[in-house]
Design a protein that fits this description.
Radius of gyration: 13 Å
Helix content: under 10%
Distance between the termini: 40 Å
Order of helices and strands: EEEEEEEEEEE
Largest sheet: 7 strands, mixed
Length: 124
């Protein structure tokens, strides 16, 4: 069992930055690939970024590639999403998720545990 708690969301102007954190409970954090998803009002939940168990491999959706950086600190049981050059279209609830295994996953159904979400609002 893994419990995930996101933090760091808020209101920011377009072009600004935020860093989201996801704190995980449990000793087996290293055994999970981690991902970030987001869901805007009236939209489907979509994949944003993922990182494998070691932090060596990452993957991003095209709309955030070059602006967002996912990282993890296994010693702290924490995964981060650094968001730069934010756009109004990035406005959404952002969810941290954990997928059992070392391989990066991009499909929502592959993730076993989810955080409660944190709101990110980007104003123009």
């Amino acid at each position: 069992q893994v419990q995930l708690v996101e933090s760091g969301g808020g209101l920011v102007q377009a072009g600004g930055s935020l860093r989201l954190s996801c704190a995980a409970s449990g000793r087996a954090f290293r055994n999970y690939a981690m991902g970030w998803f987001r869901q805007a009002p009236g939209k489907e939940r979509e994949f944003v970024a993922a990182i494998n168990w070691s932090g060596y491999s990452t993957y991003y959706t095209d709309s955030v590639d070059g602006r967002f950086t996912i990282s993890r600190d296994n010693a702290k049981n924490t995964v981060y999403l650094q968001m730069n050059s934010l756009k109004p279209e990035d406005t959404a609830v952002y969810y941290c998720a954990a997928a059992m295994g070392a391989v990066i996953q991009t499909l929502l159904e592959k993730y076993d545990y989810w955080g409660q979400g944190t709101q990110v609002t980007v104003s123009s």
